[in-house]
Structure formats: C-alpha cells, structure tokens
Specification:
Elements (H helix, E strand, L loop, with lengths): L3 E6 L5 H11 L2 E6 L2 E6 L1 H10 L7 E8 L3 H9 L12 E10 L6 H20 L10 E9 L2 E7 L21 H9 L8 E4 L6 H11 L20 H14 L7 E6 L2 H14 L5 E5 L13 E4 L7 H4 L2 H13 L5 E6 L4 H5 L5 E7 L2 E8 L6 H6 L1
Parallel strand pairs: 5-6, 8-9, 8-11, 9-10, 11-12
Antiparallel strand pairs: 1-3, 1-4, 2-3, 4-7, 6-7, 12-14, 13-14
Length: 385
C-alpha cells in the first residue's frame, strides 16, 4: 500500500503531546514544527489517525512542497504537483484555507485564487477537458506558507477533529475538545484517580477524561471528508479502523470524575453532552459553587479552565475567584491542580507559584497551563484505587 506524508496540525505548544499520540499509534514521525506534526502512513493510517487522535485539529495528506516568492512561482509550483493522482475528473476542489507567516506572499485570497487556477490548468491538460463540472466528491486543499516555503495538503478530515459530535450545547467560552484532551494528557492523571473540574461549563474536561477512561476513540461517532475517496482509501480500511475502535471500549470501567458549576443550566448542558458522548454514567455533575470545593479522598486532580476575564463583568471578580480557588486547593490534602488561563495575575492571586507552567495558544489567545503538583500516592494505595 502506498505510503504518504501526513500532516496533523494542533494547538501551538502541544506538538509534543500529539507526537507521542502518533508514535503510540505506531507511525514514524518525520518532522515536528510549530503547530503541526508530520508523519508517514498509508491509507489505513489516514483512517486510524482521524478516528484515534485526541489532540490533532485534522489530518492532511501532503501533496507537495516548494519555494515561491512570486505568484508566478506559486502558480508553477502548484501546477507541477500530481493533482490527477488525488482528484478525479468530476471532483470538486478548492483551496479552503491559506496561511502565511514571514513570507513574501501573504494575501490569503490571492494565494487561494492563483493555486485554484494552477490546479485547473494541470487537470485540464491531464483529463483533456476545458471545463470542470465539479459535481463529484469534495477535495478541500489547505496550504501553509512559512518563510516562502509552500506546503500543500489535501484535507482528509473535513470538520475539525475537535468536533467529536457530542457537544451540541456549549458554555459561553468553551474549551475545545482536543485542547482539553491534550491538557489532561499533560498531567499524570489516570483513570483510577479522582478528577474534579470546579468550572465544568458544558462538561468538556470531565467528558474527555471519561472517554479516555472508557477507551472511546474521539472520532468513533462522526464522519470524515475522505470516507468517499475510494480511489485513495478502500472502504474496508474505514470499517477495520471503526471495528478496532469498538473493540477498545470498556463502559464498565470504574471512575471518580466530577464536574461542578454554579449555574444550574450549565450543569444540565454538561449532563446532556455527557449522555451524547455515552459517558454520562461515568461522571457526577453537580451544581456547586467553587467556594464549596472539597473532597474527602486524597491524591485527586483538579483540571480546569477558570474564567479569564474575557467579559467585562468577570474582570472585577477575578482576584477574589483565584484567591478562593487557591484557598480551597490548600485544604485538599495531597491533591494536584492544573489550570489553563489567560489571566496575568493568576499565580499571584492564587497565592502560590506554580511548579511548572506551559505557554499554549488557545486560538490566537496566549494562555498559560499552570501546574501545581501534589505527591504521588503510595504504591499500595494506588493499587487499591
């Protein structure tokens, strides 16, 4: 089976987490760059990466790369790529997104237009036709320009991988599912340990943790752009990957995952989302103020996305909110706390310097992932849990 270069974009700052996921799936990583990881894989890898990767944004099949400092070079470089190997005569194709960083070509609309024309010219010559009906399957293209190096990829995913299909209802400022999964994977949390999110909103952290605990693949209940590209990926490859995902599920797993929110409506939304994800029986959601945060057990984890102050009405309350969170955490013997926030005074108001902090971009917003690490449980106790 043919081997492709596959590109998996991710949130800036989380490339190492995605790299580990790809290696754990059994594929060779050939390059790690800001915001994306490139690896080698065949048609089966395209299916498995889309279905199993928790932290990626999407999976691109690399068409090629070249240098371009003028639009003529962009046109000729695009035209030289073997589009006929990927796009059939009736295929619908377009440049869905163009990004440019530190390159002389920087207008997304112009880049998209020039590349589309070049693709049409190439395929007109190969198929010996002058007009494309474009009534067949869709083949969206994504292109990155970095320091005049053009990288072109065919989008096998379609709707971003963070859309698992379970979050029909959201909070005002929800955290993306793939970002939540990556942050959980940056902690030592395991399915036999306690996890609490005191600002659970629409339930993303608890739901992602429960899906991990139950072995539910994030893409098991959604569709992908490449499912109908039978000339590239035989249908059987998708069936095999889904069957593999189904065999990994263990809904009888024992968990202690809890989500709290002060808003009754959000608690109900979180419960509904968990039900859609098939993990509502693994999570306890409750209306509870963060000021009432407590737990009788030891060695638990708080993993949360507290308010940043994006809205004016929140800013006045941030100092007190983070101070109270610090106080409540201080009363939880032997616990660890991990929070992502863009609030600049988080550590100061929390009342403790983080053991570690990591810069992560949530979209265009720079945030910090603060890590307050508690002790490891004794080996005997960890076995009992």
């Amino acid at each position: 089976m043919k081997t492709f270069e596959l590109i998996a974009p991710c949130h800036f700052g989380l490339e190492a987490v995605l790299k580990r996921e790809i290696i754990d799936l059994g594929y060779d990583v050939c390059r790690v760059e800001d915001g994306r990881v490139t690896f080698l894989g065949d048609a089966e890898a395209i299916c498995r990466a889309n279905i199993f990767l928790r932290t990626a944004e999407r999976v691109l099949l690399k068409v090629g790369s070249f240098t371009a400092v003028t639009f003529e070079e962009l046109f000729q470089g695009t035209k030289a790529l073997p589009w006929e190997e990927l796009i059939p005569r009736d295929g619908r194709f377009w440049v869905a997104k163009a990004g440019s960083v530190k390159s002389r070509l920087f207008s997304p609309s112009d880049i998209q237009s020039v590349m589309k024309k070049a693709m049409v010219e190439r395929l007109k010559e190969v198929y010996h036709i002058s007009w494309f009906e474009e009534q067949g399957e869709s083949y969206p293209i994504r292109v990155f320009l970095l320091k005049d190096e053009v990288t072109v990829g065919l989008d096998t995913t379609g709707e971003s991988l963070h859309k698992r299909g379970y979050r029909k209802l959201t909070a005002k400022a929800p955290i993306a599912e793939n970002l939540a999964a990556a942050l959980i994977m940056l902690t030592p949390w395991k399915k036999d340990r306690i996890l609490v999110d005191p600002f659970c909103g629409s339930g993303t952290f608890p739901i992602e943790a429960a899906m991990m605990a139950a072995g539910i693949a994030p893409g098991a209940n959604r569709s992908f752009q490449a499912e109908k590209w039978r000339h590239i990926i035989p249908a059987g490859e998708w069936y095999d990957a889904i069957e593999e995902a189904e065999e990994m599920v263990d809904l009888q797993v024992s968990t202690d995952i809890q989500g709290y929110d002060i808003d009754d409506a959000m608690v109900n939304i979180a419960r509904e989302n968990a039900k859609l994800a098939g993990v509502d029986h693994l999570i306890h959601f409750q209306r509870r103020a963060m000021a009432d945060l407590s737990h009788a057990k030891k060695y638990g984890f708080i993993i949360t996305n507290p308010p940043y102050g994006e809205r004016l009405e929140e800013k006045e309350n941030l100092k007190e909110l983070y101070r109270t969170l610090g106080e409540r955490f201080g009363k939880l013997d032997s616990w660890s706390l991990y929070m992502i926030t863009a609030y600049e005074k988080a550590e100061a108001d929390f009342g403790r310097k983080a053991d570690k902090n990591r810069k992560i971009y949530n979209g265009m917003m720079q945030t910090r992932f603060f890590q307050f690490q508690g002790p490891k449980p004794p080996k005997r106790e960890s076995r009992e849990q």
